[in-house]
Specification:
alpha/beta; two-stranded antiparallel ribbon; elongated; 12 helices; 8 strands; 6-stranded parallel sheet
Length: 279
Amino acid sequence: MSEASPKSALAGIRVVEFAVFAAGPVVGKHLGEHGAEVIRVESHASPDGFRVHYPPFKENRPGLERGGSYALFNDQKLGVTLDLKQPKAVPLARRLVAKADVVIENFAQGVMDRLGLGYSALRELKPDIIVLSSCNQGQTGRRAAQRGFGSQLTSMSGFTHLTGYGPGEAPMLLYGPYVDFVAVGFGFIAVLAALDYRRRTGKGQHVDLSQYEAGIQFLTPVLLDTQLNRRVHNPLGNRDPRGAPHGVYRCKGDDRWCAIVVFTDEEWAAFCRAVEKPE
């Protein structure tokens, strides 16, 4: 008996997605890659930012159907156009949810409740519904209502402080909504866990995912080192505390560089042979 294909692992699962950019849509993409039917709800009045704001664009001309990032992050989905600000749209959205297993949303905190599409309302339609809310800073807490973007959360989490050429140098912002993609991994795993829980118990769940907190998880070693050893970390540029040489070095010619990374005695000996200086 052959093993089930990963592409059929979630066959029969239907996902309705009210989400933009990366933090929600890429979770839907991964669910679709494993066999789920993903229905993306989008509005012509407010199209996804990856459609119109983020390159690359076909032939370098922005347009609703020309964005490479949008195509990459939404290639496993069906689409429906609904402007949820219109009175007739919400009942249609509720009909979609009534036949779904999972709902993904990454609106600002409170928006889904105001639309009548919050977890409490959706649970009345489908008692075992699973809802993933991938919000900037979660649904509760003192900063839950603070709106923002992945770049802001990258700085709040501490990545910007650690990214740069060295102490005293200007910080460097990671490209794009970096923390969104960190949250994707946590969100995908959480939805799978919720589906397994529902299979065993018959109960749905509301997963409240803070993108900010997900980003902080990637800095756990730095945070622990600071808390336990009182060691403050600063930007290292291309250096590494455990490797030498470790960096990007200028070569002959215009804008030509070579990356060299050595961590072990064996790698050092190989490096010496490569540069013909075995001694």
